Amino acid sequence: xxxxxxxxxxxxxxxxxxxxxxxxxxxxxxxxxxxxxxxxxxxxxxxxxxxxxxxxxxxxxxxxxxxxxxxxxxxxxxxxxxxxxxxxxxxxxxxxxxxxxxxxxxxxxxxxxxxxxxxxxxxxxxxxxxxxxxxxxxxxxxxxxxxxxxxxxxxxxxxxxxxxxxxxxxxxxxxxxxxxxxxxxxxxxxxxxxxxxxxxxxxxxxxxxxxxxxxxxxxxxxxxxxxxxxxxxxxxxxxxxxxxxxxxxxxxxxxxxxxxxxxxxxxxxxxxxxxxxxxxxxxxxxxxxxxxxxxxxxxxxxxxxxxxxxxxxxxxxxxxxxxxxxxxxxxxxxxxxxxxxxxxxxxxxxxxxxxxxxxxxxxxxxxxxxxxxxxxxxxxxxxxxxxxxxxxxxxxxxxxxxxxxxxxxxxxxxxxxxxx
Length: 420
Prior knowledge:
Low-confidence stretches: none
Distance between the termini: 36 Å
Number of strands: 10
Mean pLDDT: 97
Strand order of the largest sheet: 1-2-3-4-7-8-9-10
Order of helices and strands: EHEHHEEHEEHEHEHEHEHHHHHHHHH
CATH topology of the largest domain: TIM Barrel
Number of domains: 2
Radius of gyration: 22 Å
Helix content: 40-55%
Largest sheet: 8 strands, parallel, barrel
Strand content: 5-15%
Shape: globular
């Protein structure tokens, strides 16, 4: 498949809701390089987030370019049109060079019966005994099984093909990095299902460089992984083995790697990711989107005075509008309303009480995962504050930036990419 823009082995997806932390985020990548590993940034902000905040994708590009210039970053970097489809892609065409093709709506919708039959006919190697190197047991399949998997995923892959070809027409071949997101489905894909999906992607001639499958467990916004870590580790290793096999079998790009969506703050699986990546000498893309916005709030609260007052106001408004804020994210949050402190109580908190409740430090008894998740989805409140919020960020830039950088480097980059 065609050469062109290439995503390096290790990359970190960094969200920057208000386009003020690109330099602080990039500094974490500089620190990674100083520690001996190249981790390149991919700035991502979805169409939904742009719509909520009232921003344009061009602001994400401008912030990224300015940070790169200021820190004299000479390695690659990317701006991701995050979770786009044909309806939403237009505004991302000029500023983006990484496109996450979101085909969630099409997963489970049956493809044309003739297309499914043709796919099964084209791939006799998927029927019978399927042996994937580095996976202990071979998989036993039959034509009915492959047909069933194709019925679930083929229409979605065809949709990804349509989006990809539109992008080629508008941007040119090799001028962007394509990712396919398959994580928004009911059950984790087995290795053989992933192999079938990758075969279909190769048939569509999409030179994907990263794929986001669904894993076991809960990947809730901004809090730790909830699930069986040993089972996750098994799935992650098997997915890496499947990708390596699919690259050889179907001629997919050699740098194709796994993407862990909603990967921010999933501390309990980071060691498993690091070990698996080391074992296979594979790449990985870790998406850490919303954790930066929470570090902004932590920085403001830590600054005290007007910053702390603003953080408390954000909480009070988020508490008052929690149903409206949580609705769009219902599948990726688990908030216990009984654990949300009353806004009147929070108004009396010191800086330390606020930051202890919000900062993701599970060794601190005051840490409150329900409060953290509510504030994670509460960035709309800060967006409505407009100038008040932006001016507070600018007035407290040093303390906010320090929190953003250290969070990204110490809690994310070190355990995943350095194994520390």
